[in-house]
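Justification of computing resources. Each target in the renewal requires a structure prediction run like the one illustrated here; the chain below, 608 residues long, is used simply to show the kind of job we budget for.
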Amino acid sequence: MKKKGVAHVVAVFVLCFLWGLGFLPVTASASNGAPGVWNPGKEIISLTLDVRSGDITDTFQDALNMARKDKSHAYEITVPAGTYKVSEGLHIFSNTKLNMEGVTIRFTAKEGNILVTGTSIINSLKDTSYSKVTGYGGYENIYINKGTWVANPKNGSSVMRFFHGRNIVLDGMTVDNCGGRHQVEVCALDGFYVKGCTFKNYSRKKSGSSKFEALQLDIPCADSVYKGVHEDGTMMRNVYVEGCTFSKVPRGVGTHTQLVGSYHENVYIRNNTFTNVAEEAIVALNYYNCEISGNRIENCGAGVLVQTMKKNSSTVYAFTEDVKYKKAKNFYSDLKTRVVNNTITVKYTKESDEVQGVKIYGRKLSKAEKGAKGKKIPARDYYAGGVVVSGNIIQTAGHGMHLMDAKKCVITNNQITGKGFNKKDPRVKQKKYDGIFLEKASTSNSISNNNIKSAVRNGIFVYEKSSVKDLSNNVIASSGKYGIGIGNKSKSTGAFTKNTINKSKSSGIFISESSTVKSIKENTITSSGGHGIGLWKKCKVTGAIEKNIITKSGDKGISLSTGCNVASIVNNKITTAKKNGIFIYNKSKAKKIKGNSIKGTKKPAIKK
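Resulting structure tokens:
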């Protein structure tokens, strides 16, 4: 009882103090909650700003400072509905909630952030400068509820910045316009929740290789990356971006800074809408245990990019500028990342690096390369492994999916349609877009049960020392070249089985350039412009070409050329091939040819 009485006296004193400063009446209550809600764990003092209109910078900051001074309470600050100006950056501290329903804040300053955690000044309150705050120990329990924050397009800074803290929540707010690199940028947070927010009307201001996410998850590793904060390399963890809208921005949500061996962990990007985003909607660079699901991506330059190494090593950090930084040594072979049940429509834009629905990108460094600040990035295979891409509906003016140095990934139950190809896109002119494209030693991947239509080049293309362990039950129609192609020393360790391929302009299945397939079984191939199944240039099928149904081939039903070898060609049904049913020539061999049904060919059914 004594402890309650003391707390009550303190609360009454604080209430009277606030009233005396011109704030409207306040109340106090206890609070306790779950992550993602305001959970200060201490008694709450509520107050409403006594404002009319005009510039409210001083009044607003005075209220924030009250929360800053009073370490015994949490503060819930309500701004009355209306439109107001803020002429200097506002500084917010721990255990503070802003209620901004019906409020529009117009930022008039030509530099600085409209809202930022902490302060860079050490003053009589003995605050720790935000350049000294480390880990997740800076600021906690901050909740921004609703409100429209309108940036000054002449201001070169990001609109909001939060860092080195815990349990930061942005709920239902809108950020409009931006003159800087990002609308909201954060780093070193454990528990960052963005729900029902809108990010809009931010045009890329600069050209070149710089990337401009509306919502950026960053790393405190260099002053040029995240200015003014302690650069200890603390990564983001427990991030939720849900039910948000990104419209007319350069990039949606993601990361473009990399610290070798360090990962953002437990990142969930779910049920958001991205419209008219110039580049990628989502960029997951070194994310571990990540879920990207239920998002609607519409008329964007690219969809989802999952990445474990950047294309240019000069932008990768091998260290931080804090001398106490302990270099991370985590290199996850399994990213535990899921890209599932998204609806994606992508189009050509001049800003996008590559038009694609989903891209999984790793890169092997055969020798050490210079990274940022001239420090070496160690030689190793920085491959992207263990990504599941499933249940997505993709309409693409480029690749449906593109894998580069991606290993042990699962691509299943996706619908991919090529549509809206732009003649200004050089890759369209060169016919270099596929439904699903694997290259750069993308190995041990599974591709099954996908439906692929109208790819510019191939429905599925496995290339450049890549491999699949399962390629089955895919339905592929109207490809510009092959239904399924495998080439340049690639291989399949499992069977090509039960795929349905219709109207490929060239061969239905084509194996080339010293590639190896275990077997080709039970596929249905109809109306190919070239061969039904073709092998060329020292390729092997170590098992059988067996029980395939091949109808209306524009060339041969099955063709082996230039030193190819097959264990057996048995029990296939070949109907109406324009030339031969089975054609083996130019030093190629099939050890056994037996039980094939061949009808309607204009040249000999079998020719060796």
